Amino acid sequence: MGTDQESYCGNRMDSYEERRNKVRRFQLTSDIFFCKVLEDKEACQEVIRILLGHPSLVVKDVKTQYSIRNIENRSVVLDVLAEDTDGRMVNVEMQVSEDEDHQRRARYYQASMDMSFLEKGCPYEELPELYLIFITEKDFLCQKTGISYIDRVVRGRGTVTDNGVHEVYANLTYGCEDEKIDELLRYMKRSDCDYQTEVFPNVVRKVRYLKEQKEGVEIMCRILEEERNEGIMIGMEKGIQAFICDNREENIPRERVLVKLQKRFELSEEEAKKWLRKYWG
Questions:
Q1: pTM of the predicted model, to two decimals?
Q2: For 19-70, what is each residue's pLDDT tens digit?
Q3: Which helix (H) or strand (E) holds 20?
Q4: ∠ Cα 211 215 216 (to 5°)
Q5: Which of 66, 52, 91 is closest to 184 using CA atoms?
């Protein structure tokens, strides 16, 4: 994330047409845009139905940028978490820009979700069916197909066992034999708002709204500005941390560092004291 808002939405002096043209650059491969499109329940339902091959699945609720906090260990933020009318949970992740171990990421996401789903004292049978759908740029499984469904199989027997977890890995490099999946994955790479389809019309409707209609364009610009401001704050905190640590290593008196902090970062005395408590000790 942390996309520079300036490169997409310009500034407040830009005309609506200029801002719209910049927002139109977005594709569904952008996790920001992907989440905003799939917060629409009908659009999310289409994507899940197609990728899972469950045409009758009905999404009851959907949340995007869903945070699962872990005080002692690493927290996670899910792109999309949906629940269907049968109580099944579906996590959809757009991970095209990530060059890492997606299977271990899926493992950690699953563990984090299971911990959040099951309350203390409840039997394991109450864990819901969980579907993990990861969309990546590359075919990291080296299967030379656009989608792979993972099963747990007893070695030497070929017997499939079911623990309620279903992993699906789609990629944007290879095509699929399934025409609907193939069309959807191709559209994710080039999300044209003028696209016509009967396979996922609600996805295209939401894309068109965010790229073409004034309200949708302004929504995207606000999101990008928030992301940009958050990135600036993170960068500023890292700078403050380095500044304090460097001065401490050079044995600069704490009182002098307090003054320097206020001048260097334009902080109030209380703000500077807060950062000193955090990084000086």
A1: 0.78
A2: 788 888 889 999 889 999 999 999 999 999 999 999 999 999 999 999 998 8
A3: helix 16-23
A4: 30
A5: 52
